[in-house]
Amino acid sequence: MEGIVYCIVLLMVATISVSGETIKSVSFIFGDSLSDIGNNNYFSKALAKANYPWYGIDYGNGMPTGRFSNGRTISDIVAEKLGLPVPAAYMSPSTNEDVALKQGVNYASGGGGILNETGWLFIQRLSLSRQIELFEGTKFMLTKKIGEERTEKFLRDSVYLIAIGSNDYINNYLLPVAADAWKYSPDDFSDYLISTLRHQMTVLHSLGVRKLLFFGLGPLGCIPLQRMQTQDGGCQDNLNQWAVKFNSGTSKLINDLNSKLPGARFRFGDGLAFFTKLIQNPQQYGFNNSDTPCCTIGNYRPTLSCLAAASLCSDRSKYVFWDEYHPTDAANVVIAENLMPTLSFGHENTTTPASAPAPASLPSPAPSASPSPS
C-alpha cells in the first residue's frame, strides 16, 4: 500500500512558482456530511450540524469541528495519505485566496445532495450545484491573485474529490412528503440523478477540473438508521440495490465524460462491495460491531442520536458506525485505504481515455453481526 501511495504522490503533487514562491497543487472537496468539516456551522438556521459533543472527540483537542464523526472524514484521510494538506472549510471567515493556494478548499455541506431540492428539511445546506458555484468564485479570486495562466495550471494539477448522493435517497426520495418520491420510479430517479451529475461534472471540467474522483454510494440499506426500521434489524436490500444501480450509472457516465471532455481524467471510486463486506464481517477488519452506532441514547434511537446526553461505546475503534449515518474514524481509515488505488490518475492521455472500473455488485448476504456490549 505504501508503494502505491508514494507513486500517487509523485504523479499528483505538481508545483508552480508565483512571485518567487513555490505553490503546490492541493485538493478541493465537494460533498455532504461524509466530507463536511464545519461549513454548516456558519449557517444560523441549518439543522444538520455536528458542532456539539460528542462529535470530534478523537480529533485534535477533542472539541467538535463540524465533522460528522468522532474523528476524521474519509476526505481528510485521503488528503493525508496523498501528502496533501487538509483543505480549509469554504465558509470559514479565514478562508481566502492565500489559504486556497496553500491548502485547497472544502465546500461539502451536511444535508446537501446532487439535487437542489434534497435536504430541504435541514433548512440551510449547500447542494452540489451551489458548491460548484462557490468553486467558480474561488477560481475568480485566484485569477485576480496569480493571473489566468497560473490559475489554470494550478487548478488543472490539483485533485478533486466528490462524495455525494446518499442524501438524495435518504433525505429526499425516501421521504413520503417529497415530490420526487411521487414523481419517479427508483430507476427513473437514478437516471435523474445521473443526468444532473453529468451537467455538474461538465461544468466542473469547463472550470478547469481534470483530476476528479467520484466516490460511489455505500450500502444505504445497512446504515443503522435504516436497519432499525426493519423487524429483524437487518439491512434493507432494496436500498442497497438502488445504490448498485446508481453506482453502475455513474461509472458509465464517467467513462463517457472521459471520452468526450479533453484532458479529463475522471475516476470512479467504488467502495460499496468492500463496505458491505466490512459490515458483514467486521472482525476480519478489527471491528466487533457494525450494526449499531457507538454514540446513541440507549434504546431510544432518534434520527439525531449522537447528542450531548448520549452515551458512548467503550471502545470507539471497534465500531464501524459513529452515529445513525456516519462511520467512525477507524472505519473511515479502512474505507479510505481500500479506495486509495483508485486515485492513480496516471498521465494525461488525449487519445485513449482511461476507463473507470466497473462497479462491483453486492456480496452474497451474510448474517448481521451481533452488537458487543459497550
UniProtKB/TrEMBL annotation:
Keywords: Hydrolase, Lipid degradation, Lipid metabolism, Signal
Record's keyword annotation contains Cell membrane: no
InterPro entries assigned: GDSL, GDSL_Est/Lipase, SGNH_hydro_sf, SGNH_plant_lipase-like
Segment forming the signal sequence: 1-20
GO MF, one example: hydrolase activity, acting on ester bonds
Annotated spans, Disordered: 346-374
Pfam family membership, one: Lipase_GDSL
PANTHER family: GDSL LIPASE/ACYLHYDROLASE FAMILY PROTEIN (AFU_ORTHOLOGUE AFUA_4G14700), ZINC FINGER PROTEIN
Family stated for the protein in its record: Belongs to the 'GDSL' lipolytic enzyme family.
Protein name from the UniProt record: GDSL esterase/lipase
Organism per entry: Taxus chinensis (Chinese yew)
